[in-house]
Amino acid sequence: MDPNVVAFRRGSLICAVNCSGKPVSFPSDGEVLASSSSYNGSLLEGDSAVWLRA
Predict the structure, then answer these.
(1) For position 1, what pLDDT does the model report?
(2) How many angstroms separate the CA atoms of 21 and 48, rounded?
């Protein structure tokens, strides 16, 4: 995983935050609950976060 991404899982909830200014690979087939930018299931935009249900 990219060192600029902070991610954790608690139960079925996954939270990932990209602290860099560039998009990074973050593949997941979870259901998107909320996102601060567009998330297509594999690329997390720069300076954004996504919350998923695994």
Answers:
(1) 75
(2) 9
Alpha-carbon distance of 1 to 3, in angstroms, equals 6
Q: In what order do the strands lie in the sheet with 5-10?
A: 5-10, 13-18, 48-53, 31-35
Structure tokens at 13: 């909830």
d(CA 16, CA 22): 14
| pTM of the full structure | 0.91
Which two three-digit tokens encode residue 44?
A: 């997390």
Residue type, 37: S
Q: How far is CA 7 from CA 21, 28, 30, in A?
A: 16, 12, 14
